[in-house]
Each structure stands twice: as structure tokens, then as C-alpha cells.
Specification:
The structure is a single chain. By secondary structure, this protein is mainly α. The chain is built from 45 helices and no strands. It is 78% helix and 0% strand. The longest helix is centred in the first third of the chain and has 18 residues. The termini are far apart.
Length: 763
């Protein structure tokens, strides 16, 4: 085909378009576009968007130093220290001479208390730039923080000489002078820092804080007011002023300052949230709830407000209200890990741990560096009886955020339950470092040493617990327990008394005092001691549980029942009280009353699966199989992986008719959740027997017998299975042993009949 006159221009257009298309696919061009867009977003304060653009640039060129550095700056703005550190390290690896990145790393190390690392980075900068006053100041701060105030002071003075016009160098010098107790020189340096830059918030606020520490309230207020005037849109100076008023005892003035901050900076999240944070700090929870509800209505997309309100509602056990807040949060941000974490917490509280695991796994997948997500996933795994996975998640949370105490506490509780001395010692030691003024770490460490039979070390740790927190009862009561174990009864009583001076309701100390009398075989005194404490704390459900236990020990089940009944009335959430009440009623033959107690417990705590299982077990003893099955099914509707309910329901179905495939699945669920239980081994073995899988069944019954050799049912089941497998000698042995250990066994007549048929008939 021939081209017309317009063909040349058409070709030119096509060529030009192709040229531009080729340029747009050039990685060098594309990465620069992403970088420039990231810079624009950064300048607008749109940090998530900026981070995404810088990440895109790095994907195109992993050695794009400027993008790594700007991504680090973005993470610093978002206070995401871990990822900021990673990007800064990438920057200096690619370009060790990037002084700003080295300075940022040094500051991160300084803030984290890694003083040697901070010092190394500052020294590196000074090699490239010997007159860098910022690096010199970091060097001085690191040395001063390591205890060498003289060296730090000299280095701070050198930093001032390097750049006499730099306000922050004077500020650093002032801080070290104050640490050195040279208050007059420190004040002069603080004032000079302000004079060098009158609009510097760090200088103004530092001088104000200095005056506040000297209780020069008027001078401090003047500096904070000047800081507010220097940067009216910044909420931080206003918060500092409110703190000053609070320290002066002017609570109303503090509250008014924060109310003005909220109204004056109504579009700034850090400003409008301050009043709610103030109420929470003052433990004025009603005011905090009202304020947060108002903020949540005004700012429904603010994740921090949603989180604060949800956590407050959960703290007050208002789970349904908290659920509504999170539902709204998830509507606005369905993939937000923080919203998913809150939903997971609520599901655990509602007894839906399996659902919680699912949503928290999503949170961890979308935010693998989120320590809170890993911690809450561990909580959910623990609620599903998956201790191994729980431990793994808590360890990961602690690895990601070493200063986070919640996973350490969870690991410590796990260690205590299984008497894991090494884990107790590890978690206790770390808590001691993180919270040196709390008795908790010392007590955990003491428990670890006690397991090692290191009694001097145990005693030393407990004394440190008392020294760290002399107003806490915990150290005294635990040291009392040690003295009780050593049969030093007088010392134990004295220590328990010290604990009770600090908290008359301390259950550990009261239990200890009661145990002193019991060990002396003086049950009457034990009862008197407890009644004396109950007179001081009459509304304690826990003390009524203890009273019931004492009465059971005294074989007075009627009084025990009355005590447990009172405990359930005082504390409807105390499941142990309900379980003990039912046990006392059963021991008196009052099974109907026990069933009623379980129903009351369910009404008060409808998501606690333990009560459904306890009720089902009791109904089984009355041959109410269908009602028992219904109770187990209700437990599994709340927690589908609850092993004990699955085990009991499976066995009922196997014994009284039911879908065999469902019974097998339930037995497998039980075995997975209770791998060390002989009962679950027996149930799964019986399910396999019903399916005709005899060899697998035999192995499970043998495993059950290893754990409980005197259980006639295990031997009966093994004997029946051997018979089906045509191992008649083994069958005979097991069935005979069943009758030997339990002549009146429920299947005794059937066994005697079978024993005559175990051998094949001779012709």
C-alpha cells in the first residue's frame, strides 16, 4: 500500500511517542520520578505516601542512597525507630561519608542508651569533619551518660568553641553542667542557648524545665509561655505548661490549658487528644470516656482515638461497647493492623480465641514488625491451649521491642506454670533491668533461683524486691513464703503482717498467715486468722473462697458451701468460686443445686467454656447424655478447638451413638490440644477402634496405660482392640487385668463373657 502525503508526519509522531514511552520505562527516569514525588509528599507532611514513593524508588535501584536516606527521614518523622535505623544503616553502608546519616544514627543510639555505638558514630563523623559541632556534642553526651562527667564537660565546651553560634551546643553544655551540680553555670548556658535562638523550642523548654526542677515556678511558666508564643501551632509547649501547673498543684489550670489547646488547635491530632490523655493520667475514667467518645464522633478515622477509647472500655469490661468502636474503626480502615489487633483482643475476651488467632495472624502478616500484634497473637494462641505458638509469638514481640514488658510477663507466667527455671530466670532478669523500681522482676528471678535450690540467692532477690518497692506488699509476702518453707514461722508471720499493713486485702499474705497455722496443725487458729482479716476486708470474694477451702478441710461441707456461695455473689466473675461451690454441693449430694450453680455461672460468664464442660461432666454422672452433649457443643461453639470439650463430646458420641466421622474429628482435635493426656489418647484410640483402624488404636491405648496404668477403661479398650486384631493372648491378658484392678467394672459381665471366647474353638 502506498502512503499519502501525510504519512511522514504520522511516522514522526509514532516515533516520538515511542521515544517517550521508552523513556518512561527507563528505571533511572522512573526512580527519579518516585523520589521527587516522595520529596513532595514529605514536604506536605504526608509521610505514609512519601514512604511508599521512596520504597518504589529503592525497588528500582537498591543502591539509591538518597532514597534510603529520605526514607529514613520519613520513618523518623513517624517515630518508627526500627525501620529508620534499618534505612540509615543502608545509607551509611552505601556511603559511609554521609555525615547527616551518621549523625542520625548516633542520635538514635544515644536515645536508645547504646552509648558505645553512639560514640563510635560520632567519632566516625569527626574523622570526616573534624569541626562538626553536632558530632562533638553527641560524643560529650555519650561520655557524660557513661559516668565520665569531666570528659563529657570538656568535650561539650569544645563543641561550643567549634561553633559559638550554635544554640544546641550551649544547650548540651548546660545539661552536662547541671549533671555536674554546677547550677549557676548551667543556668548561664541555658540562657545563652535561648539568646542564640530565641525561637528555639528545645532551648526554651529546657530552660523552663531547669527552673521547674529548681521549683522556680514563675520563671518556668515564663519560659513555657515564651515557647508557646514562638510556635503557637505546636501543642507540645502547651502540654509542658499544663504539666507545670499540675506539679504546682493547680489541676484546674492544667485542665483549662489543655481545653484551650484542644479548641485552639482543633485540627491537630496531638493537640485535641491531650485532654483525654490528661483525664486518663489522672484516673478520671468517666471524664476520659466522655472526652474520647466525643473525639471519636468528631474524628472517626483517627486510629489513636479509637484505640484509646477501646482500651478504656476493655479496662472497664465494657466489651460490647468496645466492639462497636472497633467495628467502626475497621469500616474506615479494614486492613489497619491496629484495628485488627483490637478486634483480636475483643474476640479473646469474648471467648472466641480461634477467631482472634485468624485476625491477629492477618495483622502480623501485614505488619510483621509490630510487636503488639505478635504479643496479642500469643495471647490468642494461649487461649486456644497452644502454648508452643504462644511462646514463639511472645519471644518475637520481645525481640522486636525489647523494652516491652507485656510479652516478658506472659513468658514469665508460662515459665511459672511449667516450672521452667531457665525461662523464669531470663524473664525475671530482663524485667529487673526494665523496671528496677518494680518488685515483679526480682520476685520472678527469686522463683527461678528457688527452683535451682539456691536459697541464699532467692532470699537476696526477695530483699531486693522489698528495697525496690518498700510500699508494695509483694516482696514481704513472697519472703514470708520462703520463711514458711523453711519453717521459720515467727519470721513468716512478721513478714505477712508487713504485707498486710500495706494492703489489708493482699490474698498472698492472708493465705500465708493461714498456712502458718495449718502447718502448726492448728486449724482453729487458721480459721480465726482468716476471720480477723475478713472483718477488715468484708467484701472480698477471694477471702470467701479461702474460707470455703478451710471449711472443706474441716469437713464442714455446709459451711464451705455457704462460703463459696457468698464468694460467687461478691464476685460473679470468679469461676473458681463457682466450681468449688458446685464441688461442695456435689459432695453433699445436692446435685440439682450444683447444676443450678453452673447455670448461674454461665449467666454471669456466658463465654467461659470451663463451666459448660464442668456442667456436661456432672450431667454425665446422672446419665443425662443428651443434655451433656448439648453443654459440650455450647463450649465448642465458643471455642471450636477447646480440647477437653471435644474429647468429652467425642466419647459420648462413640458410646451413645452419633456421626462416627464427627466423633473422630473431635477426638483428633482433643488429641492435638492435649497431646500429653492419657484421656485424649484413649478417646482417639476408641474412635479408631470404631473405625476398624486397630493398630493405630493399640498404640494410643498403650500410650494411655503408660501414663495411668491403673485405669480399667484403658485396659478394657486395649483388650477389645487386641481381640479385633486377632491377638487373643494379649486380649485375654488385658481383659483379665481389667477385672483384677476393678472387679465391679461397668463392663465386667461383658468381659467375663468375652473371656470364654478369646481363643478359637478346636475341632
Amino acid at each position: 500500500m502506498r502512503l499519502g502525503k501525510g504519512s511522514t508526519s504520522l511516522i514522526a509522531v509514532i516515533l516520538v511517542a515511542g521515544l517517550f514511552a521508552g523513556c518512561s520505562r527507563d528505571p533511572q527516569v522512573l526512580k527519579k520520578k518516585h523520589f521527587d514525588r516522595g520529596q513532595a509528599y514529605f514536604q506536605q507532611g504526608k509521610f505514609p505516601e512519601a514512604a511508599l514513593e521512596f520504597q518504589n524508588a529503592i525497588q528500582l535501584d537498591s543502591k539509591y542512597t538518597e532514597a534510603h536516606y529520605q526514607l529514613a527521614q520519613t520513618y523518623l518523622k513517624e517515630a518508627d525507630w526500627v525501620r529508620a535505623y534499618q534505612q540509615l544503616m543502608a545509607t551509611v553502608t552505601l556511603n559511609p561519608e554521609n555525615v547527616p546519616a551518621q549523625i542520625d544514627l548516633a542520635n538514635l543510639f544515644l536515645a536508645a542508651g547504646k552509648l558505645s555505638d553512639a560514640r563510635d558514630r560520632a567519632t566516625t563523623v569527626l574523622k570526616y569533619d573534624p569541626k562538626n559541632a553536632t558530632a562533638q556534642s553527641i560524643l560529650s553526651s555519650a561520655d557524660a551518660s557513661q559516668g565520665d562527667l569531666g570528659k563529657g564537660l570538656t568535650e561539650a565546651q569544645q563543641a561550643v568553641q567549634m561553633d559559638p553560634s550554635r544554640s544546641s551546643s550551649e544547650l548540651n553544655l548546660a545539661i552536662i553542667q547541671e549533671k555536674s551540680k554546677d547550677l549557676a553555670a548551667a543556668e548561664q548556658s541555658y540562657m545563652k542557648a535561648v539568646a542564640l535562638d530565641e525561637k528555639s523550642l528545645p532551648a526554651r523548654l529546657a530552660l523552663g524545665s531547669f527552673y521547674q526542677r529548681q521549683k522556680r515556678w514563675a520563671d518556668a511558666e515564663k519560659q513555657y509561655q515564651a515557647a508557646i508564643a514562638a510556635d503557637p501551632a505546636n501543642p507540645y509547649p502547651r502540654a509542658t505548661l499544663a504539666t507545670l501547673y499540675l506539679n504546682e498543684g493547680q489541676k484546674d489550670a492544667a485542665e483549662k490549658t489543655l481545653q484551650d489547646t484542644k479548641s485552639g488547635l482543633k485540627d491537630n491530632p496531638n493537640a485535641y487528644r491531650m485532654l483525654a490523655e490528661f483525664y486518663l493520667g489522672q484516673r478520671e475514667f468517666d471524664k476520659a470516656a466522655a472526652e474520647l467518645n466525643s473525639l471519636n464522633a468528631e474524628h472517626p478515622k483517627d486510629p489513636i482515638v479509637s484505640r484509646m477509647l477501646t482500651e478504656l472500655l476493655l479496662q472497664e469490661n465494657k466489651v460490647d461497647e468496645a466492639s462497636k468502636v472497633v467495628d467502626n474503626f475497621l469500616k474506615n480502615s479494614p486492613s489497619d493492623p491496629n484495628a485488627q489487633i483490637l478486634r483480636g483482643q475483643i474476640l479473646v475476651r469474648q471467648g472466641k480465641a480461634s477467631d482472634a488467632v485468624h485476625i491477629l495472624e492477618q495483622a502480623v502478616k501485614s505488619a510483621p514488625d509490630n510487636a503488639a500484634a505478635h504479643y496479642q497473637l500469643g495471647v490468642a494462641y494461649a487461649a486456644t491451649q497452644n502454648a508452643g505458638q504462644a511462646e514463639a509469638e511472645w519471644r518475637q514481640a520481645s525481640k522486636l521491642q525489647p523494652n516491652m514488658v507485656e510479652p516478658l510477663r506472659a513468658l514469665a507466667a508460662l515459665a511459672a506454670r511449667r516450672s521452667d527455671q531457665a525461662l523464669l530466670e531470663e524473664t525475671g532478669g530482663r524485667l529487673m533491668m526494665l523496671e528496677p523500681k518494680s518488685p515483679e522482676g526480682y520476685i520472678l528471678h527469686a522463683e527461678a533461683l528457688y527452683l535451682k535450690k539456691d536459697l541464699p540467692g532467692t532470699e537476696a532477690d526477695l530483699k531486693r524486691a522489698i528495697s525496690a518497692a518498700p510500699q508494695s506488699p509483694a516482696g514481704y509476702s513472697r519472703l514470708g513464703d520462703l520463711r514458711l518453707s523453711q519453717k521459720k514461722f515467727d519470721e513468716a508471720e512478721q513478714l505477712y503482717g508487713e504485707a498486710l499493713k500495706r494492703n489489708p486485702a493482699d490474698i498472698q499474705a492472708i493465705t500465708g498467715l493461714v498456712n502458718v497455722s495449718l502447718q502448726k496443725r492448728d486449724n482453729a487458729k487458721a480459721l480465726r486468722v482468716l476471720q480477723e482479716q475478713m472483718a477488715k476486708v468484708p467484701a472480698s470474694g477471694a477471702l470467701y473462697v479461702l474460707l470455703g477451702q478451710l471449711e472443706m478441710r474441716n469437713q464442714d461441707s455446709a459451711k464451705a458451701e455457704a462460703a463459696f456461695q457468698k464468694a460467687t455473689e461478691l464476685d460473679p466473675n470468679n469461676m473458681n468460686a463457682f466450681l468449688m461451690l458446685a464441688s461442695a454441693q456435689i459432695s453433699r449430694g445436692s446435685v440439682d443445686q450444683a447444676i443450678e450453680a453452673y447455670h448461674r455461672a454461665i449467666a454471669a460468664n456466658p463465654n467461659d467454656v470451663r463451666i459448660y464442660v464442668a456442667l456436661g461432666s456432672l450431667l454425665e454422672t446422672r446419665n443425662q447424655w443428651q443434655e451433656a452433649e448439648d453443654s459440650y457443643k455450647k463450649a465448642l461453639a465458643i471455642r471450636p478447638d477447646y480440647a477437653l470439650a471435644a474429647n468429652n463430646l467425642s466419647y459420648l458420641m462413640l458410646e451413645h451413638g452419633g456421626d462416627l466421622s464427627v466423633a473422630v474429628t473431635l477426638a483428633q482435635t482433643a488429641r492435638k490440644g492435649m497431646p500429653d493426656s492419657p484421656n485424649s489418647a484413649d478417646t482417639l484410640g476408641w474412635a479408631y477402634y470404631k473405625q476398624g483402624i486397630y493398630q493405630s488404636a493399640i498404640g494410643l491405648f498403650q500410650e494411655a496405660i503408660k501414663s495411668d496404668a491403673q485405669n480399667p477403661t484403658y485396659h478394657y479398650h486395649l483388650g477389645m482392640t487386641y481381640q479385633k486384631a486377632n491377638d487373643f493372648d494379649s486380649a485375654k491378658k488385658q481383659l483379665q487385668y481389667t477385672l483384677q484392678i476393678s472387679p465391679n467394672y461397668s463392663q465386667a459381665d461383658e468381659i467375663r463373657k468375652i473371656l470364654g471366647e478369646t481363643a478359637p474353638q478346636k475341632n
